[in-house]
Amino acid sequence: MLKPNEKEFTKNVDGIGTFTFKFPTLVDDLAADATASRLLAGNDSPTIAASNIATMMGTLSTAIVVKPESFDLENIYSYDELEAVYNVFNEMVSSFRLKSAVTKQPGDQETGAGKG
Which member of 19, 39, 40, 92 has the greatest number of CB atoms within 10 A? Predict the structure, then answer.
């Protein structure tokens, strides 16, 4: 699990290599969405696959700090390879996301920075 004070994390993606990712800021999230929008520009009805590819490429373009030399987002041909890298990143980021006071449901235990 990523700790709040850790801004980067390194993970191995089976069969692809070791990546260092940065934990996304809100500006990074906006940049990822902007990249995805540019990739889909002019496509008013993208397929689910096209939308997924644009989302993954946008996210990874802002999140990857260090990558294997053989991994190039601009020249990737395998959906499975792209998805594998994205999933490793997304699982780690999701493990860090804590419930805020806004999303806290009645009966939830108190968690978050400064708690327990």
Answer: 19
Is 96:24 a contact under the CB 8 Å cutoff? Answer: no
Q: Write out pLDDT tens, residues 66-97.
A: 999 999 999 999 999 999 999 999 998 888 76
Nearest CA to 100 among 88, 87, 114, 112? 112
What confidence tens digit (pLDDT) does each residue in 15-58 have?
Answer: 999 999 999 989 999 999 999 999 999 888 899 999 999 999 99
Q: Cite the beta strand spans of the chain per DSSP E.
A: 8-13, 17-22, 64-66
Q: Is 9 helix (H, G, I), strand (E, B) or coil?
A: strand
* Own/partner long-range contacts of 7-16 (Cβ < 8 Å, ≥24 apart): 8/65, 9/92, 10/66, 11/88, 11/89, 11/92, 13/84, 13/85, 13/88, 14/84, 15/84, 16/68, 16/71, 16/81, 16/84, 16/85
